[in-house]
Design brief:
2 copies of one chain form a homodimer.
Chain A: H1 8-28, H2 33-44, H3 56-75, H4 79-84, H5 86-110, H6 115-124, H7 131-139, H8 146-173, H9 179-214, H10 220-239, H11 243-254, H12 260-283, H13 293-317, H14 323-332, H15 337-349, H16 355-379
Chain lengths: 390, 390
């Protein structure tokens, strides 16, 4: 692992410096900075220069980065606005789970894969990873659009649905499906998100000032906000949903009480850590797996299916809002990111997925993440609310 | 390692939450919050509750925390003000190296230790770790006092001197002293710090606006500042001095150009990461080594010597400034922190230091760090420039 050869400040310099350099180049080319930062990871990573390899420390900085990213997005949105679009979001999330699942399953069966492998690939196409979309929309000041709010709400619901699919598929591979356990998992996850989304803000509004008025430390409000962030992210994991869903719900719960100071301090952490999340995605890009044309063809078919099925599935769910919103919402739900990779990893460790198919899923997860900011730039055309240069 | 059993958000919650809770309790008791945060590490660490053990991720967050701490301190000081007190600081640093070295050496010889072991313990008493003092002075708004500036300048010189002592002692233990190599190491380290302290600010003032005017990204000035921070910290390591000296010099170089936005964003990172540095110190506290009264007695003698020798040595160097400044400067230079532990670790790996004596040095390093904020509170009595409650 080359990363172990460099001391920490050198690793920080390479990762952060290359991200900002590539981001800047992409902006000059009128392309999203985010994509440049992800590709910086591919350039410095094992697939090209080989300066940096994924390791525990970079993983932690990346996980922390995406937690703060979703926390910051949550701070910019009000819970009641998300609940108002809850019905549409539910439809978007459900169709966005069903269509990709059956498409992935069908493609793998047509390719000649065994039943269980096909089911796992279907499952890996299910879960949207909202980090990139949220970052893209936040950077361009588009979080207040109706489409953005539906995307965020649908992504949270999607995470709960993805959890159910993963539980079902895993128990299927083990030969016995425990419906009671799956129902319990689903119930816990759903209860956690619904309770927090509905009453989180009110609870925080009531409880936080009580602590705050007693705290003597400077910036005590920021410390309390971070404790809420870490506590809800931890609780999210124990109820079965992703830590970033907890982080988003923490931001949402604090969006009434957080003042400008808390938002500025959070922004400082984000500016440092989010590049580690983006570069971390690029680091995992591995093109060496595509030595046979058949694998490459499968990868491209799965990538196309990954994009089209979310566009169609989620788009159908939002059909009542007009074709422009269909496009925005459908494309916003495209990125799969880590969640798809985790499903494929479980399949690999259970030996029901071949290493070839694993590489295909990882490629799909990364490629959908890279293309999304480009596609969103087209879908959300029009004046940006936030000037690019300050 | 229990820390591996918990997912990242749970570790963050335990470390950050316990630090802030203990800090708050200490403030209520009219004791420095810093000491509470260090002791939080001792409480949650292997020596008490055992919830968290040191690991790579916590080490990285701690290292990042102390880098940002020194960077922030550098931002609050002007280079020319440090250079103005350079003569006194040089005297403070040199006497603060000579007195502790001979005291440690003499005590160990009197205790019956072999010559090489005594030399290593003397060397482990040499280097001041300025993180705690800087944090203490910064938190209380005391960085603009003359004594504070002498402490900061002397700590930088002390780091270069400590490097020379470490190089000499290591080569002594290997049986042959390469004077040319030691002179080269010392020259590189001295050149790095002197060049940066003298011309760093001017160079940054000339170069940075050039980049800034071309950058399109929002908060580009903060990104550029972070790149300067990481680059100088990395360069510091390669020239032989500590990464935190590079971080401090980076802050110093940017202290003219950094606007309030950059300072606020830096503060956000600090508020998150500095508790990981403080808790990290407490995590390493291990009282189980003191099972025999002889070791415990040695530990207490070495601790007393560690405090008194810096107080006397550094104090003598600042004698011309009156006894109040003697007290402030002498006590400010007391904490040894990591640097002393590193010397002892090298001695342990070369098998010239026993595990008992190693435990004594680690105890001394942590204990001097814990007592310093308490002693500084007494030395810097009088109205604080910065209100504690905001």
């Amino acid at each position: 692992m080359p990363a172990h050869e460099f001391p920490l400040p050198v690793v920080l310099l390479i990762v952060f410096g290359s991200a900002k350099l590539m981001g800047e180049i992409f902006v000059k080319l009128r392309l999203p900075a985010l994509v440049g930062e992800i590709l910086a990871g591919a350039v410095i990573g094992p697939s090209a220069l080989g300066w940096i390899a994924p390791n525990d420390t970079l993983k932690a900085l990346s996980d922390l980065g995406v937690m703060f990213l979703l926390f910051d997005v949550g701070l910019q949105v009000k819970a009641h606005e998300l609940l108002r679009v809850g019905g549409t979001a539910m439809l978007v999330a459900m169709l966005g789970v069903i269509v990709p699942f059956f498409a992935g399953w069908g493609i793998l069966l047509a390719w000649g894969a065994p039943q269980t492998e096909a089911v796992f690939v279907g499952a890996s196409l299910v879960a949207t990873s909202v980090g990139i979309t949220a970052s893209s929309l936040s950077a361009r000041g588009l979080l207040q659009e109706v489409a953005s709010k539906i995307i965020l709400a649908a992504a949270v619901i999607d995470d709960v649905l993805g959890l159910i699919v993963l539980a079902a598929v895993s128990s299927l591979a083990q030969g016995r499906v425990n419906f009671l356990e799956i129902a319990f998992t689903a119930g816990m996850a759903a209860a956690f998100t619904v309770i927090l989304a509905k009453w989180g803000t009110a609870a925080v509004n009531r409880i936080l000032p009580h602590f705050h008025s007693r705290a003597d430390a400077e910036d005590a409000q920021f410390h309390l906000s971070l404790i809420v962030l870490f506590a809800l992210s931890a609780l999210a994991i124990y109820t079965g949903v992703a830590a970033i869903v907890g982080a988003f719900l923490a931001g949402l719960a604090l969006s009434d009480t957080a003042d400008n100071r808390v938002r500025d301090l959070t922004r400082g952490v984000n500016e440092l850590l989010v590049p580690f999340f983006l570069v971390g995605i690029g680091l995992h890009l591995d093109l060496s797996a595509f030595r046979t044309p058949a694998t490459l063809a499968l990868a491209l078919v799965i990538l196309a299916a990954a994009i089209l099925t979310k566009l169609i599935g989620c788009g159908l769910g939002a059909a009542s809002l007009g074709w422009q919103n269909v496009l925005k919402i459908g494309l916003g739900m495209v990125p799969r990111g880590e969640v798809g990779m985790v499903v494929a990893q479980i399949g690999l460790s259970m030996k029901v997925i071949s290493t070839e198919v694993y590489a295909v899923v990882v490629f799909m997860a990364i490629a959908t993440t890279i293309v999304t900011p480009l596609l969103l730039k087209i879908a959300f055309r029009g004046p940006s609310l936030k000037p690019v240069r300050t």
